[in-house]
Design a protein that fits this description.
Chain B: Belongs to the glycosyltransferase 2 family. OpgH subfamily. Chain A has 128 residues and is mainly alpha-helical. Chain A has helices at 18-29, 36-45, 56-60, 66-73, 96-99, 101-120. Chain A has a domain at 18-73. The chains are: A mainly alpha (128), B alpha/beta (599).
């Protein structure tokens, strides 16, 4: 792992090893979620322009100061973190049957409590 | 610091006081008007006129009370957490076919301002593009690459484009939440014309961290960057009166505050759980996706027990506004449709009572104009259908003459004018007494600017009323007659565009004057303050869109605002970023689409 707090040349453990380059990119961008495949694609699409001080070959070979390398990495376009949130769609104008459902349920409950008593009450037999 | 329960109670007391004050003023105005109209007999049309007057007067009284409460009740000191924010914040800039240069210059200025903070790494930036024009989208992707390289912002600056803008801005934000929202505790929602200082953004995050029940924190954006006479008028009014109106709103809204759709910090998880909105049944304008989503989102957050707060003391928040009346009316047309659509969700389940009042308030902001217009029409018609005076009523051998009510009519007129002017006058007096007049060009210039503002807004009010009436009518019949295209960078309008947008007003005004002259001459002079501005509407709209007149007012120190003398640092930064991007612009070697950009 390369420390980006220090100055001076700090060669990668194995400059030709993509794994350590990927680790470096993850470390600089603080994006542990970036997979090797994604990073490989990012590197393939990245244009090493005149804006950065390191040439592509030098960068890929692990050369350059830590700041220079971090500068190159920070010009790479990486996808945003994927961490979805569920966003349920609330009904703002529900039909009356649904709007009054709690009221209907309460009524049903009240009726349920009263019904057994009603059954226990003997029916008046007039003709007896 | 007041405890929550005490705050809720005091907000409740203020609400009751405000409703009582507005009802008392309305009752007095209605009673006086009823006294005036029954002097020549009483018929059904008078009942309609009194009802219309009562509704319109209530709306005026409500506005006056908000300003008064802003003077009476200073905001409570907000608490903010210390140290480094615990959660990460996504700064979102949703865009839709906007001019690419200024949008990215604004974002560059915000990024630079945030970049100066020690806590800069707690913030990521998202450009959420809903742009449908492919050439604009291409420019956006170029500008994005340039911005990313210039700021070395890889991993902190993201660009995403939706090919179809389903659900408009609300759908755009929802798409972000359903993709990356979980990676952030908070999101700062901006508009394409928003600017915010890094310090302000950090302070908002700290305030939100200090209150775990706070779901949304709205700042008070100040209008900047306008050069036309109308623009300077808007800037002056919002700078001088805006903070007090916002304080008044905050005082009565309490925890069921307002959301203006931008320059606000939102707790992402609360928003995602509470603010998803199913489209309304039926077709637009009243069905389909909810257009003015912000008010509804504030209501839904409050419904789920989250606090929604407007903190008027949060400075460093800016926006631009339409620079002329036609652009203003175009924006109002959209907002009008959105607010009238809210009539269908006024009775949505479980909304807090004050959230319903806020929604109703939004609806009335647009219905008030047709109500005034109907009132004018009925008032013009009433003398024609009034019964002839009865001098001999059968009870007295002597003739009984109608009782003159001139004094009552004048008292009512002055009362209504006072409702409009008095709150503003009080705010000017307060500014003068508080020693803040220097920021507005000094005491004499402040008083002159106040008089000009009152005069101009009174002259322009009938024109805005007619624009609103047309918007409401178009929404009800589902039509849009279109607008003249005159997009000049400085906001000025050619005379042809002003005529094209307002010729029908001039005809309406001329018809009103003629009708009144021939059929109701007794109302002729009463009608002139409304009819004359309509007759000259094309000229007025054109003149107020003039950059030259705006510049003259600036040189004379009139309609001055604090940032005339002390330019806003972030706005200056935005302008230099814009200049830099324009000088650096070259035919960019655009490669293929940005990875992950298209959603």
């Amino acid at each position: 792992m390369i420390s980006h707090d220090k100055t001076g040349i700090e060669p990668l453990l194995d400059p030709c090893d993509n794994g350590s380059l990927f680790e470096e990119i993850r470390h600089v961008l603080r994006r542990a979620d970036l997979s090797d495949d994604v990073l490989r694609q990012i590197l393939a699409e990245h244009r090493f322009g005149a804006e950065t001080e390191l040439e592509a070959d030098a960068f890929l070979a692990g050369k350059g100061l830590a700041e220079e390398r971090a500068g190159v990495i920070r010009t790479m376009i990486v996808p945003p973190p994927l961490h979805r949130l569920d966003m349920p769609a609330h009904e703002l104008e529900p039909p009356l049957s649904r709007r009054f459902a709690p009221l209907a349920a309460r009524w049903q409950r009240a009726l349920h409590m009263v019904r057994p008593q009603m059954k226990r009450t003997p029916a008046r037999v007039r003709n007896r | 610091m007041q405890p929550d329960g005490s705050k809720v109670r005091s907000a409740g007391r203020r609400r009751v006081a405000m409703v009582l004050a507005a009802v008392c003023l309305t009752t007095a105005a209605s009673f006086m008007f009823a006294t005036v109209v029954q002097s020549d007999g009483f018929d059904r049309l008078d009942v309609v006129r009194i009802a219309l007057m009562a509704v319109a007067a209530f709306w005026l009284a409500w506005g006056g009370c908000i300003a008064l409460f802003g003077i009476l009740f200073p905001p409570d000191a907000a608490t903010a957490a210390d140290g480094r924010p615990q959660g990460r914040t996504a700064i979102l800039m949703p865009i839709y076919n906007e001019a690419t240069g200024p949008v990215f210059a604004r974002l560059a200025a915000i990024m630079k301002s945030v970049g100066t903070l020690p806590e800069a790494d707690c913030f990521d930036f998202y450009i959420l593009s809903d742009t449908t024009k492919s050439d604009v989208a291409l420019k956006e992707q170029c500008a994005y690459r340039q911005l990313l390289i210039r700021h070395r912002a890889g991993g902190r600056l993201f660009y995403r484009r939706r090919e179809q803008n389903i659900g408009r801005k609300a759908g755009n934000i929802a798409d972000f939440l359903e993709t990356s929202g979980g990676a952030y505790e908070y999101m700062l929602v901006l508009d394409a014309d928003s600017l915010m200082d890094g310090e302000t953004i950090l302070e908002m995050v700290r305030r939100m961290e200090a209150d775990p029940r706070l779901g949304l924190l709205q700042s008070l954006p100040q209008i900047i960057g306008l050069k036309t006479l109308y623009g300077r008028l808007l800037q002056f009014a919002t700078s001088l009166y805006g903070p007090y109106f916002a304080r008044g709103l905050a005082a009565v809204q309490g925890e069921e505050g307002t959301f203006w759709g931008h320059n606000a910090l939102i707790r992402t998880r609360a928003f995602a759980a509470a603010c998803g909105m199913a489209p309304l049944q039926g077709k637009p304008p009243f069905g389909g996706h909810i257009l003015s989503h912000d008010t509804v989102e504030a209501a839904l957050l409050a419904r789920d027990g989250w606090k929604v707060r407007l903190d008027p003391d949060l400075t460093g928040s800016y926006e631009e506004a339409p620079a002329n009346m036609v652009d203003y009316a175009k924006r109002d047309r959209r907002w009008c449709q959105g607010n009238l659509q809210h009539s269908r969700i006024l009775a949505a389940p479980r909304l807090k009572f004050w959230s319903r009042i806020s929604i109703l308030q939004g609806i009335f902001a647009y219905l008030a104009s047709p109500i005034w217009f109907l009132f004018l029409l009925t008032s013009l018609t009433a003398p024609l259908v009034a019964p002839p005076p009865v001098y001999f009523d059968g009870y007295s051998p002597f003739p009984v003459f109608p009782h003159p009510e001139t004094a009552t009519a004048l008292a009512l007129l002055f009362g209504l004018v006072a409702l409009l002017i008095l709150p503003k006058l009080l705010l000017v007096i307060r500014t003068l007494a508080g020693g803040n007049a220097k920021a507005f060009g000094g005491p004499a210039r402040l008083v002159f600017s106040f008089l000009i503002e009152i005069l101009l807004t009174s002259i322009l009010a009938p024109i805005l009323m007619m624009f609103h009436c047309r918007s409401v009518m178009q929404v009800f019949i589902g039509a849009d007659s279109g607008w003249p295209t005159a997009d000049r960078d400085d906001g000025s309008l050619p005379l042809g565009a002003a005529i094209s947008a307002t010729w029908w007003m001039a005809l309406t005004g001329a018809a009103g004057v003629t009708f009144s002259h021939y059929y109701v001459p007794e109302l002729f002079y009463w009608l002139l303050p409304v009819a004359l501005p309509l007759v000259f509407a094309p000229l007025l709209v054109w003149m107020t869109s003039s950059v030259m007149l705006g510049e003259v007012s600036r040189r004379l120190g009139l309609l001055a605002v604090p940032f005339d003398a002390r330019p806003v640092a972030i706005a200056a930064e935005m302008h230099s970023a814009l200049m830099e991007s324009e000088t650096q612009q070259k035919p960019l070697d655009m490669p293929g689409p940005i990875a992950g950009a298209a959603a």
